[in-house]
TrEMBL record:
UniProt domain ABC transporter: residue ranges: 4-229
Localization (cell): Cell membrane
Name used for this protein in its record: ABC transporter ATP-binding protein
Source taxonomy: Bacteria, Bacillati, Bacillota, Clostridia, Eubacteriales
Parent-protein residues present: 339 to 567 of 592
Naturally occurring in which organism (per UniProt): Faecousia intestinalis
Top-level taxon in the UniProt lineage: Bacteria
Amino acid sequence: DSSIALHDVRFSYDGRTDVIRGVSMDIRPGQTVALVGPSGGGKSTLASLICRFFDVGSGSICVGGADVRDIPKEELMDTVSFVFQNSRLLKGSILDNVKLGRPDATEAEALSALRAAQCMDIIEKFPDGIHTVIGSKGVYLSGGEQQRIAIARAMLKNASILILDEATAFADPDNEAKVQAALAELAKGKTVVMIAHRLSTVVNADCIYVVQDGRIAEAGTKGDLCARN
Ligand code: ADP
Ligand code: ADP
C-alpha cells in the first residue's frame, strides 16, 4: 500500500544538533497532508527523510508498512516521486525531460502526461517539440512552465506516493493557476505530502502538520487550525 508512518524520528545533519526532534505521523493511503511552518522548521528535511535521501538518526520511517532502510533504493524511487520546487530540468527537449519519468514510455504517453499537466500552451510555443528547455540561446521557459514540465514527468512516472515542494511564488497568476491545476491532477488517487509555504495555499489537505523547531507543534484540519489561532 502507499501508507507513510513516521515513528519518533530524530535526525541531525552534523551529528550534533538534532534538526528533527521526535516526529511521529501516520499517513493513510490516498491521504493528502500538508507540512507548514516557519522557514528552517524542518519541512524539507522531513520530506527528504521519507525519500531516504538521508537516514534517520533514531526512530523509523515506514512506507507501505516496510522500513525505508529495508526497501531497495530502486523500488523506493519507483514508489515515491519527489517534485522539487526548482524542478531540476536537464538540457534537452521537453519530451526528453518528461520521458525521464519513465524512459520506456511512448511519445503518445509522454504527450498525454504533458496534456494532463496543463502543458499544451508550452508545446504550442515549441511546436516541433525538439527545443532545448534550458541552456540554449533563444529558448526560455519561466519557473512555472518548468514546474509544469516537472509535474508532467512525475505524472508519467505515476508513483503512488508524491512529495511536493509546492512552488507558489510565481509572479504570473495564470501560471500559478495552471501549476495548481496540474498538481491537483497529479495528486488524484495518490498519497501526497505537500510542503506548503503558506496555510492559505493549502486547499484540500486531510491533515495539516505545523512543523516548528523540528517538532510537530500542531496538527489538524485547516478548520481546526484556523479556529485555534
Ligand atoms: P524548512 O523546510 O522548514 O525550511 P529545513 O528542513 O530546510 O526547514 O531546515 C531545518 C534545519 O536544518 C534548519 O536549521 C536548516 O538550516 C538545517 N538544514 C537544512 N538542510 C541542511 C543541510 N543540507 N545541511 C545542514 N543543515 C541543513
Ligand atoms: P525556498 O523554499 O527555496 O526558501 P520559498 O518558496 O520559501 O523558497 O521562496 C520563494 C519566494 O517566495 C521567495 O521570494 C520568498 O520570499 C517567497 N515566500 C516564501 N514563503 C513565503 C510566505 N510565507 N509568504 C510570502 N512569501 C513567501
